[in-house]
Amino acid sequence: MATKKKQTLKTSRQATKKAAAKKQATKTVTKKAAATKQAKSTPAKKAAKASSARMTSVPQTQVLYIDSAFFFPAQSSNGYQEISQAGRISNMPGTSLMAALPLPAGAVLQTVTFYYKNVSTEDMPVDILKKHINHRCGSGEIEVALDSLPPTTVPPDNYAEKVVNHFSNSGQILDEYFYFIEVWNTVLTENEQRSFRGVRIEYSL
Q: What gap in Å lies between CA 180 and CA 182, rounded to an integer?
């Protein structure tokens, strides 16, 4: 009888241990499943967060400088001079200096600041223009902005600046167009100097 009771007690303890082990195994499986679910959901949450950030992002203002060293006469035979920090002139009176306006399609011009020296009695006309990749642009399509750089004296070196903030298409850089800048009427004589120093372009993306 005592042997039977002892055997029953042993069997009961073994069953208790098996139940505890099964319960522990169930907890482990549950924890692993929860960890797997969390790991799978994390990339999706990150992607959703990044997408939301893009949708609510504000266009960022960028600044680009183009030195006079990038500007050349429309005809190479005209020649040019670089007057140290005072900028560049075309050797042929009445001609222009030109350079590309290298902004990506979709950018929006905010301002273009022209830096120059004009100690004379005449203006220096400036143009921002564009041409289409597969047809000739007529008047009204080619012009992005037209302005001029007036005579002025600014101590100590007469280095002046002119901000242009009026553009066609609200300043947007359109796809399928080439954009460029043109500066006219530079000169250097004993009595007058009209030289171009460069531009500062502020735009948003």
A: 7
Mean pLDDT of the chain: 86
Longest Cα–Cα distance in the chain: 133
Q: Are 121 and 171 in contact (CB under 8 A)?
A: no
Q: Which amino acid is at 38?
A: Q
Distance CA 84, CA 19 (A): 91
Both tokens of residue 181?
């800048």
Supply the pTM of this predicted model. Answer: 0.73
Contact yes or no for 190/120 (Cβ under 8 A)? no
Query: What integer pLDDT is reported at residue 110 of this predicted model?
Result: 98
Tokens describing residue 65: 């400088």
Q: Is the peptide bond before 125 cis (omega within 30 degrees of 0)?
A: no
**Can you spell out the DSSP letters for 52-104?**
HHHHTPPPPEEEEEEEGGG-EESSGGG-EEE-GGG-EEESSTT-EEEEE----
**CA gyration radius for the chain?**
37
The residues near 150 (Cβ < 8 Å, ≥ 6 apart) are 118, 123, 162
Tokens of 22: 């099964």
Q: What span, in angstroms and rounded, lies between the C-alpha atoms of 174 and 17?
A: 76
Backbone angles phi, psi at 169, to 5 degrees: 55, 30
CA distance 203 to 205: 7
- What is the pLDDT, as a whole number, of residue 55? 56
